Amino acid sequence: MLDRLDRGAISDRLRSGRVSRPYAQELPGAPRREPRPAAVLVPMFRHLVAWHLLFIRRTEYPGDHHSGQVAFPGGRREPGDADAAATALREAREEIGLDPSRVVVLGELRPLHTVSDYLVTPVVGEIQWPLALRPDPNEVVRVFGIPLAWLGDAANRRVVTWPAPGHPEARAVIFYDEFDQELLWGVSARITVDFLAVLAASDPPENG
Fold first, then answer.
1. CATH of the domain at 21
2. What is the model's pLDDT at position 23?
3. Distance (Å, whole) CA 19 – CA 17
4. Domain tally for the chain?
5. Residue 206 located in a structural domain
6. Collapsing DSSP states into helix, strand and coil, what is residue 89?
7. Which residues of the chain are modeled with pLDDT < 70?
8. Which of 4, 36, 96, 125 is the most exposed place for a label (fewest CB within 10 A)?
9. Is the backbone peptide bond immediately before 62 cis, with ω within 30 degrees of 0?
């Protein structure tokens, strides 16, 4: 079903799929502090008729617990960014060399308040494929795609209490099975599941 959706249908579902809650929270309970605005690009592309999502694996740095993770290109909003789409497109250009003119923005998902106190707005965009990209080795070690149909199969993911039950930051975290030796989990997995719920015309789950 997912691969039968065209650009117009996806855009329509994003427009009508915004739920009444203004944003979702990764960590249950009252927010600890005002979150900093950020955005990620959720790039879609067609390959062999099937939709795929484009991901990156971040460069590893000692002491940075987000480094080495699978993610969408993105980052914090800067003063010159007009909106979330501008942030997402700028970050994608800086991280993987994606020309903003090659992206058709289809819409946005509800923002997610992360445990690291960012309010992340996912911006969905279609890109042509194949496309020559230039990852910045200081930020990205790999760019790859995962079929949307595989991501949409609930048998390929599970929800785990992370980092451990009773921990002050314990929360329900989505972990996908490995795909092409890459592990999608955490915020990027949550955004993926939220997107799939919108495409299925259902409310995004509170805990994955």
1. 3.90.79.10
2. 82
3. 6
4. 1
5. no
6. helix
7. 18-22, 202-208
8. 4
9. no
The two structure tokens encoding residue 24: 């979702």
Is 121 within a domain? yes
Residue with tokens 């949307």: 148
Sign, Cα dihedral of 88, 89, 94, 98? positive
d(CA 125, CA 104): 5
Q: Which two tokens stand for residue 143?
A: 């760019």
Q: Which residue has the tokens 């020559």?
A: 132
Q: What is the pLDDT of residue 204?
A: 54
Q: Residue 35: what residue type?
A: P
CA dist., res. 21 & res. 109, Å (int): 12
Inter-CA distances, 122 with 72, 93, 132, 156, 162, Å: 9, 16, 23, 22, 22
Alpha-carbon dihedral 185, 190, 192, 197, rounded to 10 degrees: 140
Strand pairing category for 24-25 and 112-113: parallel
Contact (Cβ atoms closer than 8 angstroms) between residue 75 and residue 38: yes
24-55 confidence digits (pLDDT tens)? 899 887 777 889 999 999 999 999 999 999 99
Q: Which residue is listed with tokens 């900093």?
A: 36
DSSP 107: E
In a domain, 109, yes or no: yes
* Per-residue pLDDT, 58: 97
Tens-digit pLDDT profile for residues 47-70: 999 999 999 999 998 877 778 999
Amino acid occupying residue 208: G
